[in-house]
Structures are given as C-alpha cells and as structure tokens.
Amino acid sequence: MKKLSVSLVAMLVLFSLLGSLVMADEHGDMAKVRVLHASPDAPAVDVYVNGDLTLEEVPFKTDSGYLEVPAGTHDVEVFAAGTEYAAGEGVLQADLEVEAGKAYTVAAANLLESIEFVVAEDSMEVTEGQAKIRVGHLSPDAPAVDVGIIGGDALFSGAEFPGITDYAEVAPDTYDLEIRLPDGTQVLPLEGTELAADTVYSVFAVNTVDSLEVIALVDYEAAASPDEMPTTGLGTPEQSQSMWLLVGGALFLVAASGLVWRKRFQ
Amino acid sequence: MCGENDFNKFALLLAAVFLAGCTSAPQDEVSIRSAEVGFSAKAEAARSEQPKEAGEAKAAEKEKPAAEPKSKQAGNPINELNQPGIAPETLSIPSIGVEADVTHLGVTDTGEMAVPDNGEELSWFSPGYRPGQRGRSVIAGHVDDLDGPAVFWDLTELEPGDEIFVSGDDRELRFKVHTMESVPLDLADVDSVFGYHSSPELVLITCSGTYDYDRGTREERLIVYASLVQE
Fold it and tell me: What is the pTM of this model?
C-alpha cells in the first residue's frame, strides 16, 4: 500500500536543515506549526518542506508537536512514506504562510481520494486561572454535531466537517461532556473530562462515523517568565584564578626592584 | 655595565608584563572554556524521528478503542494529556559529576531570574514550567564563586546525549541534552528560553563569556537544552 500509492496525504510543515541554526539567533522571527494526520484511509506519509525531508512516516491519528519554523511562506509537499522525492509530484502540496509569533495546526483531512488541508491558528494565551477548549470536526462522513454537557447545555453547536471551532473559555473543572447530534442523540461520551487551569485544548473528532474517536492535544499551557536572564557567577576573573598570579607578580616586582637597587649601590 | 642595565630593565619589564597579564583575557578560564562551545544534536534526523516515535506509541494505544465499539474509548483522551511534572528537589549530571540541591526561586527586584546566594545550590524558576510539564523548565547555577569554580563550572563539557536526572515528589525524571549555545545577554530571547514547548524540556543556565566590569556580570549566558525521556 505504502509503495503503491503515490497518493497520500497528510501533513505538513516545516523546518529543514536550517532549523537548528535558526534556533540560536532568530527566535523573534519564528512561528510554530504542528501537523496532524487525520485522513482515516491514507497511509503513513513523509513531509517535505522547501524540498527537505522534515517529517518521516507520519501515521494516521498522529501529530508532530509544534515545530519552530521561520516566518514566511513554505512549500509543503506530502508523499507516501518511502516515496522518492520529486518536486511537484507530491500527493498534497500547499504554500503555507506563517506569521512570526503565531502557532498553527495543519491537518490533513478527509478520505484519501479527496484529501485536503485544514489549517487553523492556535491560541497561545489564556486568561489566568481559566481553561480554553475548542473542537475540530475532522470525521469526513459524520454529520454536524454539538459538544456539550451530558444532559446540559452545548459548549459548541453545529460543528461541521471540515471545520475547527473558535475557543470557549471555561472554569477549570471536571465535566461530563459528550459529542451528540443536534437532536440530543449521543455520538461519543467524554465523561469525567478534566480541564486544567491555564491550559488551552484542541479536541478533534476523527475517523469515519462508524469508528468515531477523539484526538486531544494541548495547544498551550501558561507559565510566567522573568524579564531578564539570571546572573550566574559570583566571582570575577581576578579574584579566583588570577589572584595567585597577582600576588606572584607583585613579589617578582619587589624582588626585581631589589635587584636593581642592589646593583645600583654596589 | 651596559649589559647589566639591560638586565635590570628586562627584569622590570618582565614583572610589569606579569602584572598586566592578571587582568587580560587569557587568564579568565570561564571565558576560555565558553569561547567555542555550542552544538545542536536535534538536527533534521532527530526531528523527523520524534514525531515518528510519538506517532507509533499513540497509534498503538489508540488502535484498540478504534476496533472496539465506539461507546467506550480506553480512557478519556483529554485526561491522558495530564502531565503536571514535579517540583524539583535535586539534580544530577553523572557525566560531569554534578549533584546539587535545587531551591525554588522567582524573580529579583530588577526582574532577573533569581539565583542562590552560594555556589553549591541550583535554583529552579518556580513561577515557570515544572520539570516534566510541557514547556521549558529552567534551572540555573553559578559558574564560579568567590573561592573559584562553582556547581556549573563544567557545564561547557556537556555533550549531546548526556543525561540529566531531576528528582522531586518521589519521582525521578531523565532528560537528554540536545543543544548548547552561548548567547550574548542582549541577544538572549528570554521568552523563548522560558517559554512553552509542546513536549517537556529542561533548560540549564550559567554564565559564560568575558567579564563585563560595567555590568558586573559576564557578557553571555550558556544555555543547555535537554528533552524529557518518556519512560
């Protein structure tokens, strides 16, 4: 299957040999991109960015985690895993534009024959003490759904394939959630869902409707950072290593002077 | 007589050079040791591999529920994301013989990451990410103190793949070094060094570069990045 299909799917993004070099000096111009393989019948794929093999053998239901990429437009091409790279011959190709300081999810969605990219910008902030969540409908044959409290209100209504909702901010707590049809029929229970403070979640419904399942990802967790780096040296060059040289030099100077004086008065 | 005079001059000159040498760079070992450091083992191959491994693990664990009737996934996949990390108490780096207690500190009055007042202890930036939590957890230590080398004196000797162990809350986490860089203070991207990352990272910081007498600190910071080894 892998060898046969030139067809394939999937993912995207990033990087290249430059990646690690960039890390050292251009943090300010970087974006974050995460790739998700959500095409149920597509094989594992290799992802080339700007012609460089960036992700290898990414299987269905897998995400890459955030990769740092330079801001700008990147040529992303997807091949069946193991296929030899040839520019422009990928199963999927996109010019992905990313902005500095932003984060993105790039999902390869739909069945193989109709494979498509679904791109969303991810939130990198949350009100202190709150939780944030959104849902993505990436199940190609599933109807529009609501996500809400079992026996209670919907948090998200009418989510349709292929789409990713806006975020909803909620108090951190444990919720009995479910994915249900608008008429109330339960599609998938998510009881006892713990949403932690200062955390941003994305929950994607994937696979075909008869095998519907959920992929949950953390988009961001908030924590403080200082304004400045630490001062991590208590000494100065002289006082440690050079102290003895200083003393030695002074003694030598005294001795040499003495020699000079002695010679002079001889 | 002439020769003797020359000898005297030479002796004085020698002494003067000796004294002058005390403040010149070649005597500053911290500066020498950090002059040519830096590596990144997380090159292309490693990055490609990472999602692959993660993917295999995830695929394996989710295959069962997919095959079963949809009513019950093995666990709530949202709850499986819970990864709180630990409050670090000790840190050890066998490859360079470091074993130290870790104190919990925040920021100084001037907004710097606070550090211990001695050369033996390390400090964890406790308002930031916890070791083992998604994000970059930062632990700093001095390179030298008034008596000479301090706890992170040998940090420049680390190599890709070296292990760092962090313990606390009755757990021990293992990290592997992948990147080292010595960054001029003015160019350091503090938000990135202390920032979010989609997998747990440990960041070690100490001073490097030449001593800046005006600022009262060294000109650079040695920053070591390590990633959590999921057991």
Answer: 0.77
